[in-house]
Design brief:
Elements (H helix, E strand, L loop, with lengths): L1 H59 L2 H14 L3 H37 L6 H26 L4 H53 L13 H22 L2 H9 L2 H21 L2 H8 L4 H28 L1 H9 L7 H7 L9 H9 L4 H25 L1 H27 L6 H19 L6 H21 L5 H10 L3 H19 L1
Helix pairs in contact: 1-3, 1-4, 1-5, 1-6, 1-8, 1-9, 2-3, 2-4, 2-6, 3-4, 4-5, 6-14, 7-8, 7-14, 8-10, 8-12, 9-13, 10-16, 12-15, 13-15, 14-15, 16-17, 18-19
Length: about 500
C-alpha cells in the first residue's frame, strides 16, 4: 500500500503542478481577457467557446477515457502489443469524429448565430471555433494517452506551453484591434502548438504505440464500454457542463453570460486544485477488492478535509475577490459565485464515477447523468427566468448534488465501496465552526482583509479537526509513509511516549 501511495504521490505531484499551472494561468488569462473585452464581448467569446466545447463532445463520445482505461490496463499487465492495438483502434475513431464535428460546426455557424442565439456577431467566432474544435480534440486525446502511461510530467508541460502561449498571443491580438476574433484565432494557434509538442514527445519516447504489429482486440467489449461512455459524454457535454451558459445566451444577454463565466472560472480553478481524478483513474483500473476499497476511502477522506473549508473560505471573500480580479463592472457575478462555491464540496464524490468506469461498469454513471442532465435543463429554464444568473447557478448546483449522491448510493450497493460518514460530517462540522467565526468578524472590505480572515479561520478549522479527531496520528503516519519516513515517525512517537512515561513516574 505504501508503494501505491508513493506512486500516487509522484503522479499527484506532477498532476498538481499541471493543475496549478493550468488553474492559475487560466485564471490570470480569464482576468486579463475579461478586462480587455469587457462584459458583453467577453460574453460573446465564452458563448462561442461554449458551443465549441459542446461540439468537442462529438469528437470525444467517451473515446479519450476508453483509450485511457484499456491502454493503462494493458500496460498494467506489461502487454505493449495490446496497448498499441487499443491505442491505434481508438485513434482512428478519434480522427473521424474530430473531422466530422469540425466541418459540422463551420457549416452550422450562421444558422446557430442567427436563428438560435439571435446574435449575428457570433457567425465568425463560431466558424473560428470550428477549426479550434479539431485540434483541441487531439490535444485532449494526447493528454489522455500520457495519463494512461502515467507520465503526468507531460501534462505539466502541456499546461505550461498552453498557458504561456495563449497569454502571450491572445492579449496581443486583442490589443491590435481584432477583439473576439483575434482572441479565438490566438487560442487556436496556442492549441496547435501544444498538439505538435505533445505528438513529438509521444512519437519519440513511446514509439511502440505507433510502430509494430497489432493483435485483434475484443471489439464488442470495447464498444460496449464506449457506448455507455458515449451516452454519458453526450448528455454531460450537451446538457450538463455548458447548458447554463448556452441557456443564459438564449434567454438573456451576452453580458449575462460574461458575468456568469467570470464567477464560474474562479470556482472551476479551485475545483481543479482539489481534484486528482485523472491521477487515480489509471491506478484504480489496476486495483481490486480490499486494496481498491482502502485506496478510495483514504483519498476521499483527505480530499474532503481540504475541499470543505476551501468552499466556505472562497465564498467569504467573493465580493472583494471579484472586484479586485475583474473590476467593479463584474460585481453582478457575486451572487451566482456564492452558490457555485458549493460545487467544491462534492469534488470528492467525483470518484464514484471514476470507480464505475475503472471497473468496466460505465452504465451506472451514464444512466445517472441522463436523469441529472434532464433535471438540470428543466431547472435552468425555470430558474433563469425567475432568478437570472443566480437561477443558473442554483440549477447547476442542485443537479450535480443529485447526481453525486445517487452515484454514491449505487457505489455502496454495486461495488460495496463507500466512505465512512466521518469523512463527511467531521470536515463539515469543522467548516461550520470556521464559518461561524467568519460571520462574527467584520465583512472584508479588501482582498487583504479577506485573506487575513481566512488564515485565522484555517487555524480554527484545523484545531477543531484535531479536537474531534478528524485528523489523527494515523494520518500523519500514513502521509509520512508516502514520503518514505514511516519508521522515523514511529520512532519519534516511541521516544515521546517513553519520555512521557518516565515523566509520569
Amino acid at each position: 500500500m505504501t508503494h501505491l501511495a508513493r506512486k500516487v504521490l509522484k503522479n499527484t505531484a506532477f498532476n498538481g503542478s499541471s493543475i496549478i499551472v493550468s488553474g492559475l494561468g487560466g485564471l490570470v488569462f480569464t482576468v486579463v481577457l475579461a478586462r480587455l473585452l469587457h462584459p458583453e464581448l467577453f460574453g460573446i467569446y465564452h458563448l462561442a467557446l461554449s458551443v465549441a466545447l459542446v461540439m468537442l463532445t462529438f469528437t470525444d463520445l467517451g473515446v479519450n477515457r476508453t483509450m485511457t482505461r484499456y491502454v493503462s490496463h494493458a500496460l498494467g499487465k506489461n502487454d505493449k502489443t495490446l496497448a498499441r492495438s487499443f491505442f491505434r483502434y481508438l485513434l482512428k475513431i478519434k480522427f473521424l469524429l474530430a473531422t466530422l464535428a469540425s466541418i459540422a460546426l463551420i457549416i452550422l455557424a450562421k444558422p446557430l448565430a442567427i436563428y438560435v442565439f439571435h446574435k449575428p456577431d457570433l457567425i465568425l467566432p463560431l466558424e473560428i471555433v470550428g477549426i479550434l474544435t479539431f485540434f483541441y480534440s487531439f490535444m485532449d486525446f494526447l493528454d489522455g494517452t500520457f495519463v494512461a502511461l502515467q507520465k503526468f510530467q507531460y501534462s505539466t508541460a502541456r499546461s505550461m506551453i498552453y498557458e504561456i502561449s495563449r497569454l502571450a498571443v491572445i492579449p496581443l491580438f486583442v490589443l491590435l484591434g481584432y477583439s473576439v476574433y483575434g482572441a479565438l484565432v490566438g487560442l487556436t494557434l496556442s492549441v496547435i502548438v501544444v498538439v505538435a509538442v505533445l505528438f513529438f514527445f509521444l512519437a519519440k519516447r513511446y514509439s511502440y504505440l505507433f510502430k509494430g504489429e497489432t493483435v485483434k482486440i475484443d471489439d464488442r467489449r470495447v464498444l460496449r464500454f464506449l457506448g455507455y461512455l458515449t451516452l454519458s459524454t453526450l448528455v454531460t457535454g450537451l446538457f450538463f457542463l455548458h447548458v447554463d451558459a448556452i441557456m443564459l445566451g438564449i434567454l438573456m444577454t451576452a453580458k449575462d453570460v460574461g458575468f456568469y463565466k467570470a464567477a464560474f472560472s474562479i470556482v472551476t480553478t479551485f475545483i481543479g486544485l482539489v481534484s486528482i481524478t485523472s491521477v487515480l483513474f489509471p491506478v484504480f483500473t489496476q486495483l481490486e477488492g480490499e486494496e481498491l476499497r482502502n485506496a478510495f476511502v483514504k483519498v476521499f477522506r483527505y480530499l474532503s478535509i481540504f475541499a470543505f473549508p476551501c468552499a466556505f473560505g472562497l465564498a467569504f471573500i467573493a465580493r472583494p475577490l471579484i472586484q479586485v480580479m475583474y473590476g467593479a463592472e463584474y460585481l453582478p457575478s457575486v451572487m451566482p459565485f456564492y452558490a457555485l462555491c458549493l460545487l467544491i464540496l462534492i469534488v470528492p464524490m467525483d470518484f464514484f464515477s471514476i470507480l464505475f468506469d475503472s471497473k468496466e461498469k460505465p452504465e451506472y454513471p451514464a444512466k445517472v447523468t441522463v436523469v441529472t442532465s434532464g433535471l438540470n435543463i428543466v431547472l435552468n429554464y425555470f430558474l433563469i427566468l425567475r432568478f437570472g444568473l443566480l437561477g443558473a447557478a442554483i440549477a447547476t448546483l442542485t443537479a450535480r448534488y443529485f447526481g453525486a449522491f445517487t452515484l454514491g448510493i449505487l457505489s455502496k450497493r454495486v461495488l460495496n465501496i463507500f466512505p465512512g460518514f466521518d469523512s463527511i460530517y467531521k470536515p463539515l462540522f469543522s467548516s461550520f465552526v470556521m464559518l461561524a467565526f467568519l460571520y462574527l468578524i467584520p465583512s472584508p472590505k479588501t482582498l487583504l482583509d479577506g485573506i487575513t480572515g481566512i488564515i485565522f479561520a484555517a487555524v480554527i478549522y484545523i484545531s477543531v479537526m484535531l479536537l474531534i479527531k478528524g485528523i489523527d496520528k494515523e494520518d500523519m503516519i500514513y502521509l509520512s509513509a508516502v514520503f518514505g519516513q514511516q519508521e522515523r515517525l514511529k520512532k519519534m512517537y516511541s521516544t515521546v511516549n517513553s519520555k512521557l512515561q518516565r515523566g509520569g513516574k
